Amino acid sequence: MKAADTGPAGTLTVEDLSVHYGGVRAVGSIGFTVAPGESVGIIGANGAGKTSTLKALMGLVPRSGGRITLGGRDLTRVRARDMVRHGIGYVPEGRHVFSGLSVEKNLMLGAYSRPWNDGTRRRLDEVHALFPVLGEMRDRPAGALSGGQQQMLAIGRALMAGPRLLVLDEPSMGLSPKLVGSILDVLLKLREEGMSLLLVEQNAKLTFGVTSSCVVMENGEVAMTGTSAELSRDPRVREVYLGL
């Protein structure tokens, strides 16, 4: 799926990002990069600060400090609603589809930052090709979809703006192994097409299958970094962080 012309296609750089909730540190001065076309995972035990990191990156929770750039453009003060205009798509934990609206209207809302033209219609066709069930159920209320179908809708909605970087928070949560495999296939296809991915995911098979490198978080800090192949074989990562 070709990205829209949404600004620089350069590296996402996160520097010294920190988050506090009521004086309690959730994330402390972490940093990482996602190069164009790269797929990076953030892994760690529950409560490690993974979701807080993504929400702070997207501007959904206040940052206590840090700097975020994409292709050299400073996004630190960009509002959450405007991140999509800079080429970052977001698939939140728990899907958060608009249950009372049709599948088609949910997808169209994903393109709110783009003019509705032939390019946007083509992107809608591409989303239907990725997730045929969304085309088949286009007129149904999103709330009538199964959990797996709603996850497909959440991903499709994020893709409608043609992002250069897709940020996903727990895309396999609550899904059957078969549906997890379907999500894995879609993310691999997007990666092959050159889209950058940043993924928080508890499913180790999906994480290591999709990503080229990972950041391991512990207590709001970066504990380890490495290639996904290396970390998937690391006994400490498997036992302490992934429970394998």
TrEMBL record:
Signal peptide range in chain numbering: none
Record carries keyword Protein biosynthesis: no
GO molecular function: ATP binding; ATP hydrolysis activity; branched-chain amino acid transmembrane transporter activity
Gene3D superfamilies: P-loop containing nucleotide triphosphate hydrolases
Single GO BP term: L-amino acid transport
InterPro entries per record: AAA+_ATPase, ABC_transporter-like_ATP-bd, ABC_transporter-like_CS, BCAA_Transport_ATP-bd_LivF, P-loop_NTPase
Family: Belongs to the ABC transporter superfamily.
Protein name as catalogued: ABC transporter ATP-binding protein
Lineage start: Bacteria, Bacillati, Actinomycetota, Actinomycetes, Kitasatosporales
